[in-house]
Amino acid sequence: MSDQLTLAAETRDRVGKGASRSLRRDGRVPAVIYGDNQDPTPIHVEEKALNKLLMTGFFMNSVIMVEVGGKPQRTLPKDVTFDVVTERPVHVDFLRISKNAKVTVSIPVRFVDEEKAPGIKRGGVLNVVRHELELILDAAHIPDEIEISLEGLEVGDAIHVSKVALPKGAEPVIDDRDFTIATVVAPSALKSSEGDNETEAEGDAEAPAAGAKEA
Length: 215
What we know:
elongated; 6-stranded mixed β-barrel; alpha+beta; single chain
């Protein structure tokens, strides 16, 4: 599970494009906290502190304690807008949540035990269909990633969500089918070689025997 992250913030007295540009010139990033049946709270945070959390790699699926006026508010980041030219963060949306709230987050998947997959050892290729799993789970039990073992997989095998160990109490957002996360497929070179061999075999079968005369 991700460590709980904290971020200091100050309330915004003014909103609008002009006020936001002024904040960004001062190294601040406009943001808002909303949800949990409370009024939205316009805030701004230090850009350097925000970038430090973004660099962790699991900012979007971590509970962030945003401290506003010395009072921490439990939140989950829902959106970060970046400047298309400079790629600097220009706005953040935080969803206010209660301690044991159920939230929807996308968790990255990580595949392990590749050396224990016979199909991959023989040249098969792992075809990843989903790099993330969108789950509904307790906000207090959000993992950094979902680990999936490839042990025993042969060429042609598939990994479905029903075979993955999810966090306690977690449920996939897609609940109407046992969707595929990854498959082990034959490499293109192998497919091409097999196709060529089949073509040659068909040609040999159709060719007249040596020395045979046409009727």
